[in-house]
Amino acid sequence: xxxxxxxxxxxxxxxxxxxxxxxxxxxxxxxxxxxxxxxxxxxxxxxxxxxxxxxxxxxxxxxxxxxxxxxxxxxx
Length: 76
Hints:
It is a single chain. With 76 residues, this protein is an all-alpha fold. It contains five helices and no strands. Helix 2 crosses helix 3 (34-41), helix 2 crosses helix 4 and helix 3 crosses helix 4.
């Protein structure tokens, strides 16, 4: 009997995100703060925080570093 480890297949994460969530993720991955992202997007800081919490929940991500790595991998 042989065991093989297979990475779970994740549905295309970018398609799971709304366009504004993708935009917020792109700004954060570029090094912007929540406040800078909010100003660039014409939103409140609280709305940006809500977008990023939703991104974390949808994709099972816990840190900003993981979000940045994902954004780079997705080409955002």
